[in-house]
Amino acid sequence: MTADPKLVHLCGADEWSSARDRGAIDPAATGDPFVHLSTPEQVHLPANRLYRGRADLLLLHVDPALLESPVRWEPGVPTDPESMLFPHLYGPLPVRAVIRVTAYRPAPDGTFAPLPQELT
């Protein structure tokens, strides 16, 4: 793991629109203790588990240096590759920490592929 890994947050267009209005994505609004983040190399795993077939997903590319709350690397779910850890942001994700937004569309069968190299 590098000292400053690339991080992404997966969300629907409506969630991103609301976050821009409020200034942040707050995990307390959904009852979660943290904001789910991923690395670009692993984001297809939660996308397929949670959002299969959704055509409105966005990837929020996050600058870790602009986060104000701690990021902890923790296990995902048992079906994830062994020893894979996911970044969890224990506090709000400020809109100002999002440095790029890209669409993340499923294949015709509804599955999400790993990101192409230019997005990692």
TrEMBL record:
TM region(s), chain numbering: none
Domain of life: Bacteria
Database matches in InterPro entries: DUF952
PANTHER family: BLR1139 PROTEIN (PTHR34129), DUF952 DOMAIN-CONTAINING PROTEIN (PTHR34129:SF1)
Entry protein name: Glutathione S-transferase
